[in-house]
Amino acid sequence: MRHLFLLAILAAAMCFTPGTYAQKNEQPVSLPYDIELPQFPGGEAAMYKWIDEHVKWPDGFDEDVYGRVVVSFMVETDGKLTEITVLRELHPRLAEEAVRVVKAMPKWIPGRKKGVPTRMRYNLPVRFRLM
Known about the structure:
Layout: H1 2-15, E1 30-31, E2 35-36, H2 44-54, E3 67-75, E4 81-88, H3 92-104, E5 111-113, E6 116-118, E7 120-128
Antiparallel strand pairs: 1-2, 2-5, 3-4, 3-7, 5-6
């Protein structure tokens, strides 16, 4: 009975989660109360492609570390990224690289609330793995 209850909660949570898979010609994610989340120019697929092209493995870093560094930042009304902080780090050098990559990103399309550009916080996982 307990497992059935947990499955029902999980299924309900999945129904209310905005889509995370990028599609061609994707539109900004629209949430209740007429809110649109900020987005990277070109959408989510373009953002992850851009990150993969710009992330550099730190020189001399030969530890067997892989996973995600979660970076949080504000997307301002003009699309600039500010208040960049690390929420979860694997290693200090990998956290520095994730912050460097976010700082180098082009301006984003700002979020909107009731059609008005609004300052919003965005949390971004940056993956590190040896290929």
